[in-house]
């Protein structure tokens, strides 16, 4: 049964390290949530190891830079682990295995035209309508593209058998400070149109393995995963053997049950 708490400090005696989601827990992409910076600072003063574990389709450095820009003490985090970083590793592996052509064209969908996933790789970024050998869905832009817009130009690629990688499986995101549809739904539409899609990120075991490895000598049962998504953060944390805490005010929060039920819940992150 989920125990409701008002302050994180209520449960820290049984915790040696934290895996901490970003969006919906620390910030909305544009500004930090009230009390979140102070909570991270208090954890840092306590010497609590923290790893940011995010389904961001961007690499680790752009995410760390954003945390700093929003006012978080970045040195409080042992690492920033993102699904974008895991995607970059997969691209390198496919290039090494010749499953992706050197100089090959890829269609990268991202927010703010972020190209960090393919920067410095022997790949060519393609534009809409050009032939490609891979579609990478790392982000979407609800401000300028409707879900139907994406369906219109992606469906022919899916029907042609072009494989896809979803670097951010979140189905809801913050865009302009408001909740909107996420890249996970763009990827779902691609799969529904016949495309083969590999999903990287929470709740997959590989994401939590990377987070726990970055955290250091902390056993899963002494690690607390804090997130706002029952289907991503809580489910993945439970399967990894971690303790879990659901932030109920987050953009992803729903009605958890079974494997998506957390050990603890609180409305907003407070120390």
From TrEMBL:
<dbReference type="InterPro" id="IPR006357">
    <property type="entry name" value="HAD-SF_hydro_IIA"/>
</dbReference>
<dbReference type="InterPro" id="IPR036412">
    <property type="entry name" value="HAD-like_sf"/>
</dbReference>
<dbReference type="InterPro" id="IPR006356">
    <property type="entry name" value="HAD-SF_hydro_IIA_hyp3"/>
</dbReference>
<dbReference type="GO" id="GO:0016791">
    <property type="term" value="F:phosphatase activity"/>
</dbReference>
<dbReference type="Pfam" id="PF13242">
    <property type="entry name" value="Hydrolase_like"/>
</dbReference>
<dbReference type="GO" id="GO:0005737">
    <property type="term" value="C:cytoplasm"/>
</dbReference>
<protein>
    <recommendedName>
        <fullName>TIGR01459 family HAD-type hydrolase</fullName>
    </recommendedName>
</protein>
<dbReference type="Pfam" id="PF13344">
    <property type="entry name" value="Hydrolase_6"/>
</dbReference>
<dbReference type="InterPro" id="IPR023214">
    <property type="entry name" value="HAD_sf"/>
</dbReference>
